[in-house]
Amino acid sequence: MARLTKQSLAGVPAEARPRIETPGLGIVHLGIGAFYRAHQAVYIEDAIAEGGGDWAVAAVAPSSTTIVDALRAQDGLFSVASLSAAGARTRVIASIGTVLHAPSERSTVTDLLADPAIRVVTLTVTEKAYQPGSAMVKLLVDGIRARIAAGAPPLAVVSCDNLPSNGSRLRALVAEAVDLPESVTFPKTTVDRIVPASTAETYALVRNALGVDDLAAVETEPYKQWVIEDAFPGGRPAWDRAGAVLTDDVAPWEQLKLRTLNGVHSTVAYLGALAGYETIADALVMPGLTDVLRRFIADEIAPSFAPPPGVSVMAYGDEVLERFENPAIRHRTIQVAMDGSQKLPYRVLRTVLDLRARGLSPRFGALVVAAWMRFAEGTADDGTQLPLNDPMAAQIQARLAAGDDVVDQLLSLTEIFPESLTSDEEFRSLVREWHRALSTHGVRATVAGVS
Ligand code: CS2
């Protein structure tokens, strides 16, 4: 079967064709994973369709060559299938203008980062890349240095990863190595769309819908959201006309999303994987689980922060649970469970800390921590092995090997657990109780027995 290309596009059903002709470049993006393709790439396409402008993307892969090869063979085109019980809608996206591989084309990337035509840089590089000296930070630093040498035309550098104050965090990492001029800003954003890793089924579904093969296709849910701090000194695509929220204050949205959606996602991932469920949607049928999640949201997540004006955390939480139940999205529990050492602090431990500061008991927060510990131990309730895919896997395994008390051993990982939590005896004993229940009775009985 023919591949998706500019030429084969004529044979693709009209309603699935791109909304735009790819314009000139205006954005460099680092990290071309499935999430990027189903989220920002779509917002950019829609913003160009609504408001015009030279805002096509130079998409840079930090390591993988597979995606580079796939997109190059397709003139940068790829498709996004949004799936729900009501059916699928597939559309081809044309907002990527060129594709680069950072390790082998580094100087092309740094030249582009210095090019005045580029006015926005976006990043989806996952939590673990936000470390001093990471390849991503070095690349940005070199690019921004070159840009300063070229007269520092205005630039906005936009982190689209699930971290609190992502823009400030990225600015701090870059500022360690370079004196940042005022013409370079780091707007904060909150991104949201559930995008599982593509599988053979994704490619088959898209082949059926388009009549051509697309090896860069992604599947996702119909929902998407993007809240962006409006600080773009060199201009930006008309994202507001593409459904994004442009605001002065991203923080309440970020807390809402990280603590509710991501916090609950991780909870379902650990409990679900331990109980033997393959996907998030499958795990939600576990008797008693949605009651536990609703109580976690009502008793602990909602009181831990001030939501955006007019937003009810409970209503948002119910919408999140409905999204997780989408039967057409096969998001694997072990995919969401990966990198727990990087995710738990922002998704769950901040909620726990804020509750403790208010003198409230973090009962369900402790359950998530205990479930993560059981997951890290590597064996599901039915004896199946669970993969510990985590940049701290070696340290976690070393602690588990160092002593019999799993809770004490893992709570002593200071990169994950702040001192105020490890010295909190009430928290420790809550984690210990849940860990004992999960180890002795398993997840299903523990969840069903929550009163
Ligand atoms: C998920 C997120 O994999 C994970 O850890 O919680 O990728 C989640 O699907 C997105 O943040 C949704 O916007």
Describe the structure.
The chain is of the alpha/beta class and 451 residues long. The protein folds into two domains: 8-247, Rossmann fold (3-Layer(aba) Sandwich); 252-448, Orthogonal Bundle (N-(1-d-carboxylethyl)-l-norvaline Dehydrogenase, domain 2), CATH 1.10.1040.10. Helix content is 45%, strand content 13%. It has helices at 34-38, 40-51, 66-72, 106-114, 135-149, 166-175, 200-210, 251-274, 280-283, 289-301, 313-324, 333-337, 340-357, 363-377, 393-402, 406-411, 419-422, 425-448; strands spanning 25-30, 56-61, 78-84, 87-93, 96-101, 120-123, 155-159, 184-185, 189-192, 218-220, 225-229, 245-247. The relative contact order is 0.11. The mean pLDDT is 97.
Features:
6-stranded parallel beta sheet; 2 domains; binds D-mannonic acid; 3-stranded mixed beta sheet; 12 strands; N-(1-d-carboxylethyl)-l-norvaline Dehydrogenase, domain 2; about 45% helix; about 15% strand; alpha/beta; about 450 residues; Rossmann fold
How do the strands and helices of this protein lay out in sequence?
Blueprint: E1 25-30, H1 34-38, H2 40-51, E2 56-61, H3 66-72, E3 78-84, E4 87-93, E5 96-101, H4 106-114, E6 120-123, H5 135-149, E7 155-159, H6 166-175, E8 184-185, E9 189-192, H7 200-210, E10 218-220, E11 225-229, E12 245-247, H8 251-274, H9 280-283, H10 289-301, H11 313-324, H12 333-337, H13 340-357, H14 363-377, H15 393-402, H16 406-411, H17 419-422, H18 425-448
D-mannonic acid binds next to helix 8 and helix 12.
